[in-house]
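## tool: complex_structure
## caller: assistant
## args:
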Amino acid sequence: MRYGRGPEVLSDVSLSLPRGSFHFVTGPSGAGKSSLLKLIYLASRPSSGSVRLFGEDVAAMPARDLPRTRRRIGVVFQDLLLLDHLSAFDNTALPLRIAGHKASEYRNDVAELLTWVGLGARMDALPPTLAGGEKQRLAIARAVVNRPEILLADEPTGNVDHEMALRIYRLFVELNRLGTTIIIATHDQDLVARSARPVLHLDKGRLRPLPPQGPAE
Amino acid sequence: MSEPFDPARWRPASFLPEEDARDPALLFVVAVLCFLACLTALGVIAGNRAAQGWASQLTGEATVIVRARGGETPDAAAARAAETLAGVPGVTEARALEKEKAYELIRPWLGDVADLDDLPVPRLVAVGLDDKAPATAATLDKALKGQGLDAVVDDHSVWIKDIRHAAGVVRWTAGTLLALIAGAAAAVVAYATRAGLAARRDVVEVLHLTGAEDSQIANLFELRFARIAALSGAAGALGAAVLGAVLRLVGGGQGITPALPIAWVDLLAVLPCPILAALVAAVAARITARRLIQRL
Ligand SMILES: Nc1ncnc2c1ncn2[C@@H]1O[C@H](COP(=O)(O)OP(=O)(O)OP(=O)(O)O)[C@@H](O)[C@H]1O
Ligand SMILES: [Mg+2]
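## result:
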């Protein structure tokens, strides 16, 4: 793929991830990790080639069918994309509201999830008043609140200490155990090294799958 | 310390920042446009009423000009004409005007005349017509000819046509004005929608990526601008109604002048303004938002 008329940032990338799998995407800065995730969460379309999700070619999908597919995917964006004028609670509830759920159905789940990620006391806080790690956890809460079938996380542990990173990792493992396909783009070599998950290594837009780095869990 | 957050009392907040909805410039422009639209509407209503008043005064009567023929004196001819006309169905009253009165009517064109008798002033017969089934000019004319009278009937239809025509022109002008005002309001809202979308690209992007349909996002802008327009519309309408009431009070029972009579019930005409403003704003915002979102 390429951005506008820019150079190709991903080329010859060919991969197929089974349902329920758990992968890391690693690589130096600028290698194209975020670009790869954008293709999967339907923020970009490939300049050539195809992207198949849930058995459909989403690269060729008409724009009006995209929302339906996007609702099955949760994303932790690298720059978080929290809405600054909405409380932590409202930010988290956003995917549920968009999907048309009623407040009465989910308000307790949202509160529970926020408590679980350690934001129980900051539910009515606005993102600009949150610490970096708190924002990150809020973004994660929003990404998983709708029980997505695929979870894409772009640097989800970039702003948190080691302990919180492990906790977040365990949340992903838990979701994966419940059936969610997980893809995490990360620089966190430490995390990757501890994990028994397969690694997709990107370098200058080219993909090199690596075996799991860590011991079996 | 504020109360702890209670999820049970949580109400979903607007996806678009509330403070965007309080743009005073937009509120002001829409309010002014609605004010002008309401004044235009009041003007048309008053104008129509005035035209109707004049026309109905004129339809109720006709004037017949009688010239003496043969040896008959003008007075006798006029009296005979009046008598004839009184017998025609659809005529309620026919009265010959004295020479002096007829002269009064034409004096503005003639100036003062020393001796009235030197002047061949034609005699006039004022005819009152039945409001429901007025006799036509042709009927009157026929009755007069039947009696061998040399007379010209003027049933004022020329004037009535003029008044109707003028009223029609006023209506068309007002309609055009209202259309222009609605167009201007739509343009302002479209502009504001564009600005709102540009200012909140981040919100739109997040909503999109979270799976919002284009129409869901367009809806946010549609509702927001409909609400703003309804509020401004109410303010503008209220302003126009107050002005109308002042004109009515200043003008006394007849309104500001008999030429532009405003009745209290006319002020109700401003009521639909907020709703119409909201509709125009909603349509403009929806079309603009959808077009821009599709291009993102
Ligand atoms: N919106 C964009 N427009 C143009 N070029 C872009 C855009 N986003 C990324 N790029 C370019 O694409 C290449 C890959 O960027 P990408 O963000 O995918 O890298 P990354 O692996 O996620 O890096 P990082 O680890 O720093 O997040 C880079 O050269 C970058 O400059
Ligand atoms: Mg990146």
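## assistant note: The mean pLDDT of chain A is 90. Chain A is about 35% helix and 15% strand. Handing back to user.
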